[in-house]
Amino acid sequence: MPAVREAWTDERLDDLTKHMDREFDHARSDQGEFRTEVREEFSGVRTEMRTEFSHVRAEISGLRDEMRTEFKSVRQEMRDEFADVRTEISGLRGEMRSEFSDVRTEIGGLRGEMVTMQRSAMISQRSTIVGFVAVVATILATQL
Q: d(Cα 15, Cα 17) in Å, to the nearest integer?
């Protein structure tokens, strides 16, 4: 195939310049459209992110409120339980005091019974000694 070589004329250069100008205009237009499209997409993404973040913030706020309510409820339950425990302990103290009072009364009664038993034992011992002395005195009196 023979090489075809044409000479560059002013006309051909002008045509080439016009063609290149059209292509550059087209490229600029495409580039402008692309930039507009990218801006619109980023704007959409930003709007979507704002909306989602707004939803997340609202959800977190709701969770905080729910947690506050739950913690308040738990605190109240703990207060009530501690109050019940205190009341129960107070009742047990009263019962223990009553029991100790009863034990003291019983110990006092036992002391009285022991004193009575000691007196009885002493009287019995004295009676036995008097009886023994009487027996010994009788034996001695009869032997003499």
A: 5
pLDDT of residue 63: 93
pLDDT digits (tens, 9 = 90+) for 88-115: 999 888 889 888 898 999 898 888 889 9
pLDDT at position 141 is 86
Per residue, the 3-state secondary structure of 53-97, as one string, reads HHHHHHHHHHHHHHHHHHHHHHHHHHHHHHHHHHHHHHHHHHHHH
Determine the Cα–Cα distance for residues 91 and 93; give it in Å rounded to an integer: 5
d(C-alpha 85, C-alpha 93), whole Å? 12
Q: How many CB atoms lie within 10 A of CB 51?
A: 10
CA dihedral 101, 107, 109, 114 (to 10 degrees): -170
Based on its alpha-carbon atoms, the radius of gyration of the chain, rounded to whole angstroms, reads: 60
Cβ–Cβ under 8 Å, residues 50 and 44 = no
Please check the confidence at residue 43 and state whether its pLDDT lies above 90.
yes
Task: Tell me the pTM.
Answer: 0.43
